[in-house]
Amino acid sequence: MTKKKRNILSKLYIGIIFTFLYAPIAVLIAYSFNDGKTSVWKGFTFRWYVELFQDSSIMTALYNTLIIAVLAAVISTILGTAAAIGIYNFKGTPRKLIQTVSNIPIINPEIVTGVSLMLLFTFLGRMLNFEMGFVTVLLSHVGFCTPYVILSVTPKLRQMDNHVYEAALDLGCGQWQAFYKVVLFELLPGILSGFLISFTYSLDDFVISYFTRGSKFQTLPIEIYTMLKKRISPKINALSAILFVVILTVLIITNIHDARVEKRNKENHGGTV
Predict the structure, then answer these.
(1) Predicted local confidence at residue 150, as pLDDT
(2) What pLDDT is recorded for position 269?
(3) Helix axes 3-31, 234-272, angle to 10 degrees
(4) What is the pLDDT of residues 211-240, one digit of tens each?
(5) Dist. CA 161–CA 205, nearest whole Å
(6) The domain that contains 154 carries what CATH number?
(7) In this structure, is residue 45 part of a structural domain?
(8) How far from the centroid of its chain's Cα atoms is residue 202's Cα?
C-alpha cells in the first residue's frame, strides 16, 4: 500500500469516527429549531428557545447546575493543584501510595461513590441537624473533581525544571513571589485543563448529584431525568444546543490560547539559543 493510499484511508477513518461521534449532536441541534414536537420536521422556529427561557423550573435547575459547576471547578482546582505539589514533594513509595489513593475516586464506580456519600451526609445530618442540598452536592462534586486536577497538574510538575524555582529565589524573589511568578506559570496549562475537566464533569454529573441533593435541590441532569417519566420537551433540545455551543466555544478559545503560548515559548527559546 502506497503512502498516498494510507493517508486517504486514515483521513476516511477519522472522518467516519467524527461523523459517528457528532452526527447525533448535529441532529439534536437541528431539531431544536423544529416547529413540531415529534421527529417529523414541521418548519423552522425559535419557539423552543423562547419557551426555554420562560420555564422557571428548567432555568432554576440550570442556574443551580452552573453555580455548582463553577464553584466545584474553582475549589477543586485550588485543592488539586496544592495536592499535586504536595504529592510531588514526596519521594519513592510514599508518593506512589498517595497517588494510588488519590486515583481511587476516578476508578470507583459513581454509584458506589454516590451511595456512600449519601450515607455519610445522612449520618452527619442527624448528628448536626441539617438536610442535604446545595452544600452536600457541592462537597460531593469537589470530592470527585479534585483527583482529575491532580492528574492534570502532575505531568506539568514532572516537566518543570526544579532549578527554576531556586533560581528565582537567588534573584531576589520571596518564596510566595517565586511560587506565583515561576511555579504557577509553569503549571498554568495543567491547572487550566484541570479546571475545564472539573467544570465539564460537574456540569454533566447525574448519579452522585441524585444521591446527595436531598428532596429540594434540583440540578439540570436530574430535571431532565424527571421529564423522562412523561415526555422530553423540545425545550431540552434547545438547552442542549446552547450548552454544546458554549462548551465548544470555551474549548476553542482555550486551544487558541494554548497554541499562542506554545508558539511564544518556541520563539523565545529560539531567540535565546
Answers:
(1) 92
(2) 58
(3) 140
(4) 998 888 888 888 888 877 777 778 888 888
(5) 37
(6) 1.10.3720.10
(7) no
(8) 6
CA-nearest of 23, 26, 49, 45 to 34 is: 45
Question: Could you read off the pLDDT of 248-265 as tens digits, one per residue?
Answer: 887 787 778 777 777 776
Burial 189-202 (b: 16+ CB within 10 A, else e): bbbebbbbbbbbbb
Domain coverage including residue 195 = 54-242
CA dist 149 and 188 (Å) reads 12
The residue type found at 36 is G
What does the H/E/C string look like for 201-219?
Answer: HHHHCCHHHHHHCCCCCCC
- Per the domain annotation, does 11 fall within a domain? no
The structure's pTM equals 0.81
Residue 34, beta-bridge partner list: 44
Please report where in the chains the cell 417529523 appears, as a residue. 40
Average pLDDT (78-89) is 89
To the nearest 10°, the Cα dihedral for 160, 162, 166, 171?
-30
Q: b/e string for 246-271 if b means 16 or more Cβ within 10 A?
A: eeeeeeeeeeeeeeeeeeeeeeeeee
User: Do you know the residue count of the chain?
Assistant: 273
Overall domain count for the chain: 1
- Residue 9 counted as domain residue: no
The answer to whether 42 and 36 are in contact (CB under 8 A) is yes
Among the residue ranges 123-132, 171-180, 241-250, the one predicted with the least confidence is 171-180
Buried b / exposed e across 111-146, counting CB within 10 Å, b at 16+?
Answer: eebbeebbeebbeeeeeeeeebbeebbbebbbbbbb
Residue 101 main-chain phi, psi, to 5 deg: -65, -40
Place of cell 499562542: 260
In the chain, what is the greatest distance between 2 CA atoms, to the nearest angstrom? Answer: 72
Reported as a pLDDT band with limits 50, 70 and 90, residue 271 is very low
